């Protein structure tokens, strides 16, 4: 088995154990034996990996997105955990996203204006600006997801 395969199986096991094997079976509709094969490092299961839909269901219930984190690391990317759980149904729609977007942008601009009063941005001011930028980004992601779900559009 490849190094990548072993790495993914290790994180699949961590995900299943985080959720609990019984609950993982309920959430995915898979048996204990099937879930076990997804993280088994025995040669006969080397080519068996957990389906991505099952990963999404388990990570929604888990304390941390173990498999997504592993995939991110393998791709050389970093993962920023969003406590808002964007894979859950989000209230509102595009109209409420547009309102939230304008409010968030106003907050960012107010923070920027306050930071620039003395002509320079301190470390603490930069941290606050970064936080506001991240919150603005989250609103844009919510809006993107609403547009995709409401209109069947995709970014590809």
Total number of helices: 7
Relative helix content: 55-70%
Mean pLDDT across all amino acids: 85
Largest sheet, strands/sense/barrel = none
Order of helices and strands: HHHHHHH
Categorize the overall geometry. elongated
List low-pLDDT spans.
none
**SSE-based structural type:** mainly alpha
Short description:
This protein is mostly helical and 156 residues long.
Structure, explained:
By secondary structure, the chain is mainly alpha-helical. It has two domains: 3-74, no CATH class; 94-151. Helices cover 66% and strands 0% of the residues. The protein is built from seven helices and no strands. α1 (3-19) runs antiparallel to α3 (32-39), α1 (3-19) crosses α4 (52-61) and α1 runs antiparallel to α5 (66-74). It is elongated and about 65 Å long. The protein starts with a helix and ends in a 5-residue tail after the last helix. The model has no long low-confidence stretch (mean pLDDT 85).
Features:
156 residues; 2 domains; 0% strand; mainly alpha
Element layout with pairings:
Layout: H1 3-19, H2 21-28, H3 32-39, H4 52-61, H5 66-74, H6 94-115, H7 123-151
Helix pairs in contact: 1-2, 1-3, 1-4, 1-5, 6-7
């Amino acid at each position: 088995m490849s190094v990548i395969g072993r790495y993914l199986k290790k994180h699949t096991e961590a995900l299943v154990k985080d959720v609990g094997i019984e609950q993982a079976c309920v959430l995915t509709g898979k048996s204990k034996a099937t879930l076990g094969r997804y993280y088994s490092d025995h040669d006969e299961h080397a080519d068996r990996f957990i389906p991505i839909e099952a990963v999404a269901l388990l990570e929604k219930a888990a304390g941390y997105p173990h498999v997504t984190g592993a995939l991110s690391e393998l791709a050389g990317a970093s993962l920023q955990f969003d406590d808002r759980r964007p894979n859950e149904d989000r209230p509102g729609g595009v109209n409420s996203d547009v309102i939230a977007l304008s409010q968030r942008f106003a907050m960012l601009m107010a923070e920027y204006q306050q930071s620039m009063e003395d002509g320079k941005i301190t470390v603490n001011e930069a941290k606050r600006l970064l936080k506001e930028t991240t919150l603005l980004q989250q609103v844009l992601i919510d809006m993107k997801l609403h547009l995709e779900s409401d209109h069947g559009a995709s970014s590809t």
